[in-house]
Structures are given as structure tokens and as C-alpha cells.
Write a structure and sequence with these properties.
With 87 residues, the chain is α+β, with helices and mostly antiparallel strands. It has one domain. Helices cover 24% and strands 8% of the residues. It contains 3 helices and 2 strands. The longest helix is centred in the middle third of the chain and has 10 residues, at 42-51. The chain is globular, with a radius of gyration of 13 Å.
């Protein structure tokens, strides 16, 4: 994603899918749209999700061996600063 991309992301990437992430609950096209929700960026939404305990939106899909640190590292993010990419 371009560093300067701001919500709503449909302005940058086209029509929203309105899919909900089973992990964090982010709804693409709603949670990032200031006309329908707070208009959070992916970074802000992820930061709030981590700060509130990484509760899964649908815990039935959470792998038994799931690790926040591994998931963030796989995305190139620092587990201690999930709002910022790793250097």
C-alpha cells in the first residue's frame, strides 16, 4: 500500500469489498470510511485492536498456535509498535 494512502481506501484502490477480517474485525469499505464509521486507517485500527487485547472478531477461526508477534512480523510490522513498519 502506498505510504500516503489515506482512508477511505476506495479512493485509492477502487470499490470496497465490505469483507470483514475474521481476525481483527476490520470491514473494508466501512471502518476506513469517515462517512460510515470513524474513518480509521489500517494502522490506527490495528493499533487500537492491539491496545484492546487482540480479541478475535470470530474466535472459531483463530488457529491454536496463533501468535500476534508472528502475524505482525509476517506483515513486516514490529509487535511493539504495530502502528509502524519495521525499519
Amino acid at each position: 500500500m502506498p505510504v500516503d494512502a489515506l482512508p477511505p481506501y476506495e479512493d485509492e484502490f477502487g470499490a470496497a469489498s465490505y469483507e470483514v477480517c475474521l481476525c481483527c474485525g476490520f470491514e473494508f469499505g466501512n471502518d476506513d470510511n469517515p462517512r460510515t464509521a470513524e474513518g480509521d486507517s489500517f494502522e490506527r485500527y490495528r493499533w487500537k485492536w492491539v491496545q484492546t487485547g487482540t480479541v478475535w472478531f470470530d474466535p472459531t477461526h483463530r488457529p491454536d498456535d496463533w501468535s500476534l508477534n508472528r502475524q505482525l512480523a509476517a506483515a513486516g510490522l514490529d509487535a511493539f509498535r504495530p502502528d509502524l513498519p519495521r525499519a
